[in-house]
Specification:
Elements: H1 21-39, E1 51-56, H2 62-72, E2 77-82, H3 94-104, E3 107-111, H4 115-125, E4 129-131, H5 139-153, E5 160-164, H6 170-182, E6 185-189, H7 198-211, E7 215-218, H8 221-225, E8 230-233, H9 245-252, H10 259-263, E9 273-276, H11 299-302, H12 309-328
Parallel strand pairs: 1-2, 1-3, 3-4, 5-6, 5-8, 6-7, 8-9
The chain binds phosphoric acid mono(formamide)ester and norvaline.
Length: 334
């Protein structure tokens, strides 16, 4: 039996704060149930005749394919629209594009630069819009991360999640909210020049208060990760920030997630997990830098038994499916 909150019908997800804490956790549970349904071999028709537009200004492996498969698995269809394919941003405004696509599709997933673009799509399309990553937030990613933690540890409340790296990027911002909404303590280990917007931290602390969860911002990675159950990192240079590469390498080298840092949690052999939204620079010469080898995470951590990065990647599909079902299927159950 699948269950979801009927009040999610028709709703967009532009940032995690669009959801109540309970709604967010119910989506994680629905994703777990949908994963079991797929594992049982069911390819049903929950999303029959639903059509989604996938607008991408930035490149993607996980989000794009998860968004396509999630709807096709349950009988619907997806149209991938890169900004080379449509007029958005060149010959046509976001507002007009929203009004056209809203007449044709049942939902729109957007990946791109400005948070204001996804907000305009939601304001004018008349259909649910999902944020598949902007410069500010990555809410569909964090739903998958919470799902992965819940699957492994059987709970979220009371756990300690430490993010290590570029502390003010889209993933760090959103993980902070995902944790405190779920009652997990959040520590952001980052250099002083990369701390998140104080207004966001203040907002997250308010959310944390009602759930008994704290938010700490620290510059010492070893001290910050002490007692952590989840160590999370992301690339040091996000899409669109390539010009910052040299500066970020020198700033963030002391924040590399390696075995020494994992040991500093004091939880080796206990409840400990490594997560990374991927793609990760862990083992090779990258296209972005002439350096070879690991950047934000070493290969031994990435490949360790406590690394759940590929469960996390798979869970992108199940959580996006949960968003589709709850927003595009009326009734709250099946
Ligand atoms: N984690 C994530 O969003 O991956 P993609 O950039 O491949 O979509
Ligand atoms: N912070 C990264 C996340 C990639 C999934 C970026 O924006 O490039």
């Amino acid at each position: 039996m699948l269950r979801w909150k009927p009040e999610l019908y028709g709703r967009s997800l532009l940032r995690l704060s669009d959801l109540s804490d309970e709604e967010m956790l119910s989506l994680v549970q629905l994703a777990i149930d949908l994963k079991a349904r797929r594992r049982a071999g069911v390819r049903g028709d929950l999303l029959r005749r639903r059509q989604v537009a996938l607008i991408f200004e930035k490149s993607s492996t996980r989000t794009r394919n998860s968004a396509s498969i999630a709807i096709r698995d349950e009988g619907g269809g997806a149209e991938y629209l890169s900004t080379n394919d449509i007029h958005l941003g060149s010959k046509e405004s976001v507002k007009d594009t929203a009004r056209v696509l809203g007449r044709l599709f049942d939902g729109i997933l957007f990946r791109g630069f400005k948070q204001s673009t996804v907000e305009t799509l939601a304001a004018y399309s008349g259909v649910p819009v999902w944020n598949g990553l902007t410069d500010d937030f990555h809410p569909t990613q964090i739903l998958a991360d919470l799902m992965t933690i819940q699957e492994s540890f059987g709970r979220l409340k009371g756990l300690k999640v430490a993010y290590v790296g570029d502390g003010r990027n889209n993933v760090a911002n959103t993980l902070m909210f995902g944790c405190v909404k779920a009652g997990a303590h959040f520590v952001n280990c980052t250099p002083d020049v990369l701390v998140p917007d104080p207004a966001l931290v203040q907002e997250a602390r308010e959310v944390g208060k009602r759930n008994g969860a704290s938010v700490e911002i620290v510059s010492d990675p070893k001290g910050g990760v002490a007692g952590a159950n989840v160590i999370y990192t992301d690339v040091w240079v996000s899409m669109g920030e390539e010009a910052q590469m040299e500066q970020r390498l020198s700033l963030l080298r002391p924040y590399q997630v390696n075995m020494e840092l994992m040991r500093a949690t004091g939880n080796m052999g206990g409840e400990l997990m490594f997560l990374h939204c991927l793609p990760a620079f862990h083992d090779r010469e990258t296209a972005m830098t002439a350096e070879s080898g690991a950047l934000e995470v070493t290969d031994d951590v990435f490949e360790a038994p406590f690394s759940k990065v590929f469960d996390e990647a798979e869970n992108r599909m199940h959580t996006i499916k949960a968003l589709y079902v709850s927003a595009m299927v009326d009734g709250g159950g099946f």
